[in-house]
Amino acid sequence: MILGAIESVSSEISDEAIIVSKKEREGKILPDNDSNKPMDAAFLLAQVGGSAETAALVLEEFINQVPLDVGNIENLLTAGDLAAAGKVAHSLKGSSGVFGANQLRQIAADLEMACRGNEAEKANELFAQLKSEAQRCLDFIPELKNSLK
Description:
about 80% helix
């Protein structure tokens, strides 16, 4: 869903910016793994062709979607539907990657694998981590938005 939001606003980005962004995604700019910050502003800007306005738009989608995904995963785990929980975790993994939210992306990936492996106990442990990291990302967004100005 977040990836769709990026695609829908990308029509506002020049062809040159898209080409630059594609090159950056191909390996020139990677998320900052060493930062204590849960999300990487430079990486996010690279994903949207350098447009702070577009970054702010997709951040709004992140703010709206992440709590829904976390809530859905929680409900699905409670219901014992590991397959469906794994699919939502997969989606969250992808959208987290767009924002350079590496820890959230990694936890979502681990949760997805635990769900695929039908490891309910491990999935529940990972969900607690995912919920905490998702909140850390959401709490960081005001600072992230300020750094885009």
